[in-house]
Every structure is written in structure tokens, then in C-alpha cells.
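Appendix B, Record 12. Input sequence as logged:
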Amino acid sequence: METATAQSELTIPQKSGGPLRQTIRYALHLAAVYVIANATTMWLAGRVYDWVLPLIEHHSPTASSLQFAFSHLFLFSFFPAVLIAFMFSVWYPHRVALFVWIVPVVILAYKVVTFPATVFQDHWVAAFHEYFGGEFIIGDFHSYQELFRLYGSSDIPRGIEQLHFTAPVYAAIGYGTGAWLAMRSTGSGLSAALRKLKPGIRPRP
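Logged structural output:
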């Protein structure tokens, strides 16, 4: 009887709580999105560049590490966010996690609308290329001096803009997707296995 009760409690979402608690939860999930976008994305891209690409291509990568990372921002921000949010939402099923995309989307929309295009450019085409365009051309570098030299004559500034404003949107959408999947699969074997890994004080047998 006690075992059945304990199992049923695992599948019941946590109570929503008051506005203050919901705001704190939302802020924590939003912070997780920005950590994923600004730290995990570049770290994971670097590991793939250093360890995986040489195995696939059977030679050292021809593109620079920054060019590779900026060219695959969606891959390295969206999918890690899905996995992290799924795990967190199995442990802490907060519905506010479904709406973390709102803040990054509003910020990115503002950046697109206010993008300072020149009189010779179509505003929307230039803004789309700045925040969503690929085809980065960034040379390799081996020192900070070479990096600073490249900064003014390559796509590094555009890549940094996408890292700071576009990658959080990718990560937030992935985060919301992972949270939704976790809440829809409360009875699955994977969710049950992840619940056993939930940090915290375990009850005595």
C-alpha cells in the first residue's frame, strides 16, 4: 500500500504555488536557458570540433573552431536544452518552464526591429542575415593577437551577436520542448529511472 502511494505521488505535478514562487521558478529556468546558450553551446561545440570531427573526417578540421561553432549554433543549443530540461522537469515539473521562450524571443525581436541597417540595405534582409544567417567565414588563429586582428575583418561580431541573442531563443525553445516531453511521459520507464537519480535526501528503507 505504501509503495503504491509513493509511486502515485511521483506522477503528480508539484503545486503551482503563489506568484512569487512562480516568478522565482521562472527566473531559475530562464537562467538555465542562458547558461546553456552562452556556456554549454560553445563548450560542446569545442569538444565536437576537437574530438569528433577528426574521427569523422580522418584529418584535422579545415574550418576554424569559431566558424564551426557559429555555423552550428542551433545544433549545440537546442538539443542540449531539450535533454537538460527533460531531466530537470522529471525531477521538478514546473509548468512555467514551458514559457521560458518568451523573454529571449522578445529580446531578439527588439534587436531585429532596431537593427541599424544602412540606407543601401534592406532592413529586414540585413537583420535576418545578422541574426539568422550562416556561411560564416572566420580564419583560424593561434593567439589573442591573431584573434583581435580577425575580429574586425571577419564574421566574428555577427557570430557573437547570434550567440548572445539567437542561441538563447534556440535553447529556450528546446528547453520548453524538453519540459513538455517530460510532463507528457510521467509514466515511462525513462522518467522512472531519472526520478531515482533526483538529488536530495532519500527516505530510509
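The chain has nine helices and no strands.
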